[in-house]
Amino acid sequence: MSELSFPKRPYRTKGGVHVPHHKNTAHTESVEMPIPKTVTIPMSQHIGAPCTPLVKPGDIVDVGQKIAQAQAFVSAPIHASVSGKVKKIEKITMPDGSKQDAIVIESDGEQRISPDIRPPKVESLSDLLTAVRESGLVGLGGAGFPASVKLNIPSDKNVDTLIINVAECEPYITADHREVLENSWDVMSGIHTVKEFLNIHRVIIGIENNKPDAIKALSEIAYNGFDPENEIRVLPLKATYPQGAEKILIKACTGREVPEGGLPSDAGCLVMNTGSVAFIARYLKTGMPLISRRLTVDGSAIKNPQNVIVPIGTPIKDVINFVGGYKEEPKKILMGGPMMGLSLYTDELFIQKQNNAILAFGEKEARLSEPSACIRCGKCVSACPMSLMPLELSNATDRGDLESLKKLHILNCMECGCCSYSCPAKRHLVQNIRLGKQLLNKAKKEQINKGGKK
Amino acid sequence: MDQKLYVSSSPHFRSNTTTRRIMLDVIIALLPTTIASCVIFGFRALILVGVCVAGCVLMEYFARKIMKRDTTIGDLSAVVTGLLLALNLPVDINPLIALFGCLVAIVVVKQMFGGIGMNFVNPALAARIVLLVSFPSAMMRWVPAFWYQGADAVTAATPLAAEKGTFSYIDLLLGLHGGSMGEVCAAAILLGGVYLVIRKVISPIIPCVYLGTAALMSLVVGADPLYQLLSGGLLLGAIFMATDYTTSPVTNWGKVIYAVGCGVLTILLRSFSNMPEGVSFSILLMNILTPLIELLTRPRTLGFVKKGAKK
Ligand code: SF4
Ligand code: SF4
């Protein structure tokens, strides 16, 4: 393989849109939230198999105690975020509408630390993987992919580049930005750990150029003796959405393309979120598993927008009350950013590991616009970072034309929302494309079933 | 919580461009041309614009009503069609003929195919061609500039039909010659074009490539490129007609191919057919080829690997 080089400036990526940044909370110190009265911790806060509870109602639990785990490879154990008594284990409705078991713990306010908490001994890659798995870490950027699985790179893949994602391209959200500013050393030492154990010799920290202070903070550490091998670089990226989408970030940082249907490792890359690497560094020091996280609370209906460090399982309502409550009647509440976040039907839900933001909006922002006929302006086509034809995808879905959907590479759509965002006719392109994917996947399954019977 | 929340699919933010805003921009971009034609051809020009715009809007309204569909006149696209149609007519045409043009554009070409975004040819252009075929003499009776100021209203030659040396480049730029209402004043058209590009309503690809190809082709057939660009419907066509969203390709390479096609055809028709003006036919023909061009120029999706290609 040729010598790895560091790009002077990002590689060209296609499409994308300029969404207003609204980074209102970028310059406000994060605050730690007081311990809530109860926490409700769902059994699946990650992609993969849900956990089974290890505790039963009436049990007394300590902070950091493992309360649920799963045998499956793709999964992450869950720990108590407060000390207190397990009140019940009940089915709750999750933000996406699915039903799930959740452990409800009544806090005793003491925050007694579990005696099991001690820094893990990590001397080899397999030690690191075990430790990360035990820590309960999932991708903190939103998708919630178990970190130990991500780090466990199959031996047939040659991963030579670690990309740290500080693009944070979604409007409002500043959780990663604050992490970098407040915990710069954790971020860097986490990077160092991952890089050493995985034997990766090129680390690119991608930061959108609208965060000059974050670029400075990390550069100052990286270029001042921290990295004698000279293998870490901070790369300022264009501040356009969706710069932080994995495939786009990989393209911008390395010029490589993740093949359709493939994973970052197919392009020789490992992409990690800043919060995740910083957490790994802290975990190795203290042994305290993932029981709280930083998230941005913002939006036009929020009184005092802020980054808050919240125990997992805290009711969303408590978090909002903590920042001063609503300043106008909320009409839309989002878990995540405005471009890809999930819209909630109530604020009586709970913070999960992968939530990076809670946003609440008033009537003006929340109002839905009526779609009208497509005028074939082509704006969706030029906005699509994956170079797809959103209007055609949407039309083919309407026609139920699976052949065309395949030919148009519908499964390569990452649902970033750029097409819908830019459409002057306000068409629900992403929504329709999702439907198209479901149609295609359903047809595939049916075909497999039929094939099986023969 | 008792209040109701909106629950919808992401993205939850939308840009503030709307179809209406885009159409409004096109209207604004057409204003210099419209004003210029009123100055050059007088009050009748204004009346004709009024007739065509009102005709198109009303016909759109009633056509949708009869077809039991929602009203769409609010998107202003009918105004644009009416304006473009008027600017493509000679000023002293019988308003009834103009209204017939509106009927063709809005009812036959636009609404019968499903309304905005569904027509496969440009409504205003199609109407112009239908009129050209149905009323050739009325459609080709040109009056000279400022005829209303007492100059005798004999038919004047358009620059393309006139003898060499009749009109200077300045005449062409300012529109001091006969022709369709909106075609004459090149400067006004260019101004509108610049506005559209700045407002990102159109991409500069189609006009630039169209005009560039036409200039090159003029050299090839031995005509004066600048004279060709500034005369006839070429500028109006390249900037306002060929860039019609519905009937031009949405892909960038598609736009290039489409515009090259328009340019080549225009000059070929101008030089070798007995029609004086090839712009309308060229664009119409390329309109029809648009779906095919689009199919051939689909962008390569990120990470697409050809089957069988080595990694
Ligand atoms: S952006 Fe909207 S109106 Fe424009 S081509 Fe795409 S779907 Fe049609
Ligand atoms: S949501 Fe899909 S189709 Fe739309 S812009 Fe993003 S990747 Fe392209």
How many E-type strands of chain B?
A: 0
Task: Measure the end-to-end span of chain A.
Answer: 46 Å
- SSE succession of chain B: HHHHHHHHHHHHH
Q: What amount of the residues of chain A lies in strands?
A: 15-25%
Give the number of helices of chain B. 13
Question: What spatial form of chain B do the alpha-carbon principal axes imply?
Answer: globular
Oligomer: heterodimer
Ligands: iron/sulfur cluster
Helix percent band of chain A: 25-40%
The description of the largest β-sheet of chain A is: 6 strands, mixed
Largest interface, with counts of residues having CB < 8 Å to the other chain, equals: A-B, 69 and 42 residues
- CA radius of gyration of chain A: 22 Å
Enumerate the spans of chain B where pLDDT stays under 50 for 5 or more consecutive residues: none
Give a quick summary of the entry.
The complex is a heterodimer of chains A (454) and B (311). Chain A has helices at residues 125-135, 147-151, 175-182, 184-197, 212-226, 246-254, 274-286, 316-322, 363-366, 379-383, 390-399, 402-407, 418-422, 429-453, and strands spanning 31-32, 38-42, 52-53, 60-61, 66-69, 78-79, 84-93, 99-107, 161-166, 202-208, 232-237, 269-273, 292-298, 306-311, 332-335, 342-344, 357-361. Chain A has 454 residues and is of the alpha/beta class.
Task: Give a verbal description of the structure.
The complex is a heterodimer of chains A (454) and B (311). Chain A has 454 residues and is of the alpha/beta class. Among the domains of chain A are: 125-286, NADH-ubiquinone oxidoreductase 51kDa subunit (Rossmann fold, 3-Layer(aba) Sandwich), CATH 3.40.50; 379-449, no CATH class. Chain A has 14 helices and 17 strands. In chain A, β5 (66-69) and β6 form a beta hairpin. In chain A, α4 crosses α5, α4 packs across α7 (274-286) and α11 (390-399) crosses α14. In chain B, α4 packs across α5. Chain B has helices at residues 19-41, 43-66, 77-87, 95-110, 123-134, 136-139, 169-174, 186-198, 205-221, 225-230, 234-241, 252-272, 279-296. The radius of gyration of chain B is 21 Å and the shape is globular. By secondary structure, chain B is mostly helical. Chain B contains 13 helices and no strands. The mean pLDDT of chain B is 89.
